[in-house]
Amino acid sequence: MTDFSYVRSEMLDEKAPPSSSTGLVGWARQNLFNGVANSVLTVLSLIVIYFILAAILPWIFVPTWNGTSLQNCREILTAAGSVGEHGASGACWGVINERWQQLLFGFYPDAERWRPILAFALLFVAVIPVLFNMISRRMNWVLLLAVLGVGIMTRGGAVALVIGVAFLAAAVYVAFKMFGTSKGDRALEIAEGAKRLPNPLIFSAIFPFIAPWLLWGGSVWVPIGAALGFLIGYGVYRAFVGAIGSLGALILAVIVPIVWWLFLVGSFSSLMDSILPFGLEAVESRKFGGFMLSITIGVVAIACSLPIGIVLALGRQSDLMIVKALCVGFIEFIRGVPLITLLFVASTLLNIFLPPGTNFDIILRVLIMVTLFASAYMAEVIRGGLAALPTGQYEAADALGLDYWKAQRLIIMPQALKISIPGIVSTFIGVFKDTVLVSIIALLDPLGLNNAIRADANWNGIVWELYGFIALIFFVFCFSMSRYSMYLERKLRTDHR
Amino acid sequence: MKKTVFLGALTVAGLAAGASAAATLDDVKARGKLNCGVTTGLVGFAAPDANGHWDGFDVGVCRAVAAAVLGDAEAVEFVPTTGKTRFTALASGEIDVLARNTTWTLSRDVDLKFTFVGVNYYDGQGFMVPKGLGVSSAKELDGATVCIQTGTTTELNLADFFRANNMSYEPVPIETNAEAQQQYLAGACDVYTTDASGLAATRASFEAPADHILLPEIISKEPLGPLVRHGDNEWGDIVRWSLNALISAEELGVTSANIGEMAAAAGDNPEINRILGTEGNLGEMLGLDAGWAKAAIMAGGNYGELFEKNIGENTPIGLSRGLNAQWKDGGLIYSPPFR
Question: Would an 8 Å CB–CB cutoff place A78 in contact with chain B?
Answer without folding.
Answer: no
